[in-house]
Amino acid sequence: MEPIRAAAPAPRGPDNVLIVDPDAVSRRFVEIALGGRSDLRLLAATDGGSALEILATTRVHLILAETDFGDMNGLQLFRRLIQETRLSGVPFVFLSADTRVTTRRAAFAAGVDDFLAKPCDGDVLATRVRALIARERRSVAAASRANSFDLGGRFAELALPDLVTFLEQGRRSGTISVACSDGLGTIFLDQGRVVHAVFGTLVGPQALMALATDPAGRFEFSLGPCRVEAAQQTITEWTQFQVMQDARAGRTKGGTTKYFAVSAGASQISGPTENAAAAADPNAAAPAASRPAAPARTNLIPAFIPDPGSATLMAEAVQDGFTLGDLMSFTDEDLSRWTGATPARDRFHVLLVADLPQGISALLPLAGAPTDDWILRSLSPKVKALGLSFFLRRERLLDLVLVDIREPGRFSESLRRTPSAMIVAPPGAEPETVGVRARVELADLACRLTPPVTLVAGDAMLKKALRSITSRSGGEIAVRGLPSLLGAPGADLRTVLAEGIRLCAGARRS
């Protein structure tokens, strides 16, 4: 038998470059500079509308645009593109006859990749175009290698008992994040052994059983050290084995579910015939030690909730297009100091959990010019969160911190203040746009912070999950849906902030 050989990679076709320029002479120059190269294919548009039509049907690897068209300007086109996930990563270069410093500054502040002035050397243009396309390919390759999880799928294809058996054989430690039709859950493993599980208000074997018998769930396994201390573990090897056996029996024979209560490392079994209350409400029969505890909020500064009059003034101020905020960037230590500070003024603190390109695109129009200090701080190699602060009249402060929705737990320990409002803005309307692990981290973050008001864009599963944390957190959380994705008409950041202020004041009255 001949050895199996890996298939050769398919040859890659030419990269598509879209030229958006109303001037025929300029388009011809680009065609001459780039058209003779077999690795590039040129597409042309005379305005923003025709460019969007091409982008709707054709895969484009780089956009080369003038700064002004007949129907819109180049910055407007760029901002529309970065609000769509499928287009936000396409390199964007201005090739413009406008050589003013203010134009270049505005372009780079918006986030374009390069700005070239006409007339431009053809070889320089070709070199920069190919370098940017190559950089984007390396970035995509690095992102695919750096998945936040190591194994993922659906329980319909790989049932939880079989997944646990597979991880047990490999003696793997880590977490299984689960998204089911009615909630989010987490299973913790230590050397292949399940030691703890959480699902909504369930913990321990009850949570594990509920997750194991839901074939509609999606899962992501992330390899890493077990994060549950021995004293907090609620599942022993014996209860894990029994739950897995019962789960298999329940799927194949319609067997009766049993509920387990675990306390101080000992396990006891109660069936539905022995304890009807346990069957109706497993938590009711569980000892206090195994019930889900309210999240730790001991060091959080309480949220400021404005009265209706103050809320009206703040909402009007933030919706004023002339009101601009100061950009801020935070390391973990900076963020802890900032959110833990107590200024001598009313402070409406907002946490924006969003796709980073989409969040930055929504935030920058509200920001003034960056200061030298902000730019210098941004050049340091530490990972940072982005912020914005508005110093309003009548001694009022509105500040906002942007957190990546793909890693919502990244700065969790540095958030020392309960936000008056939290805005959750996934990059798309479908649940798959945010990973299972990120949704679990987001629910845990909201449960820990318990903001009075949470606004969610698009993702119905996220709304449902965030509403379910009220019983877990012991606090009242008003969850509202946005009419569309952040940045779309009717959901620009100024409008969303004003809505959050008004809803927060309403929470005070209720």
Topology:
Blueprint (H helix, E strand, L loop, with lengths): L14 E6 L3 H11 L5 E6 L2 H10 L4 E4 L8 H9 L9 E5 L4 H10 L3 E4 L4 H24 L5 E4 L5 H10 L4 E7 L2 E8 L2 E7 L2 E2 H9 L5 E6 L13 H17 L5 E5 L2 E5 L5 H5 L1 H4 L22 H12 L6 E5 L1 H9 L5 E9 L1 H8 L8 H7 L6 E8 L3 E9 L16 E5 L10 H14 L3 E5 L2 H8 L1 H5 L4 E5 L10 H17 L1
Parallel strand pairs: 1-2, 1-3, 3-4, 4-5, 15-17, 15-18, 18-19, 19-20
Antiparallel strand pairs: 6-11, 7-8, 7-11, 8-9, 9-10, 12-13, 14-16, 16-17
Helix pairs in contact: 1-5, 7-8, 11-18
Question: Percentage of helical residues?
Answer: 25-40%
Q: Quickly give the structural class.
A: alpha/beta
Strand order of the largest sheet: 14-16-17-15-18-19-20
Largest sheet: 7 strands, mixed
Computed over alpha carbons, the radius of gyration is 27 Å
Q: How many individual β-strands?
A: 20
Overall form? globular
Task: Explain what you see.
A hairpin with a 3-residue loop joins strand 16 (385-392) and strand 17 (396-404). This protein is of the alpha/beta class and 510 residues long. The model is unreliable at 1-10, 253-297 and 470-474 (pLDDT under 50). It is built from 18 helices and 20 strands. It has helices at residues 24-34, 48-57, 74-82, 101-110, 122-145, 160-169, 204-212, 237-253, 276-280, 282-285, 308-319, 332-340, 356-363, 372-378, 436-449, 460-467, 469-473, 493-509, and strands at residues 15-20, 40-45, 62-65, 92-96, 114-117, 151-154, 174-180, 183-190, 193-199, 202-203, 218-223, 259-263, 266-270, 326-330, 346-354, 385-392, 396-404, 421-425, 453-457, 478-482. The strands form four sheets. It has a seven-stranded mixed sheet, sandwiched between helices. It has a six-stranded antiparallel sheet with strand order 6-11-7-8-9-10. A five-stranded parallel sheet has the order 2-1-3-4-5, with helices on both faces. The radius of gyration is 27 Å and the shape is globular.
